[in-house]
Amino acid sequence: MNEVLDVTRPSAHVARVWLNRPDVRNAFNDDVIAALTATFETLSKDEELRVVVLGAHGKAFCAGADLNWMKTMAGYDWDQNRADAQKLADMLWTLDQCPVPVVGRIQGDCYAGGMGLAAICDVLVAVEGATFCLSEARLGLLPATISPYVARALGVQASRRYMVTAERFSAVRAHALGMVHELATPDTLDARVDEIVATLVANGPKAARECKRLVRDVSSMPITAELRAETARRIADVRASDEGREGLQSFLQKRAPAWLPAA
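RE: above sequence
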């Protein structure tokens, strides 16, 4: 595998996207940013897809920016820096807008831009010994493009601390703060990810997409009459849909729904 990403489709419903630069701890550069953007743009259009697993080959998940890329950026003027940062911001937005659940698999260091990737995941599973760090301030920089996603996933108060201190913190700490959903050992990491993938595939495919969109839409909105009416409309739409009717009937009839393969 010589590409910066290793993308596999173990089934029509599941895609696995692996960062594939283990020799540089899967650090970002222009090629990685472009490849992730293009890959998730394509996956987002796939109506058969139900879940994406985002992981990395090697010992680290993502160490942040590639050293050679940083050397190049050191000579950029303001306009070049602005254009370069916009590509990273657009990549993160593309991943965040993926309509199906994204399961993150964190097996080692997750630093700087890698924290942005982890933060966009809907379900995050990490090895207990993994380490997280918002290291930008240590270099006189700031985690600007990843900040909306990190603050959402890590929480405002924890983000205030770890962005300004650039301290490393453990997966156990990230779990306590709510960013990491599941902790695993190196031997159980893949099995736990597979269990979550199987759970997601078993759910109504349209309902899962709508659930993800629902959380995004309502989480920052005040609970007004308009919001109450909107949520009522959404559940009515789903109940009246073919998938909603099939899901309810299969439950009442104690049989598998049509979106699952027959036993």
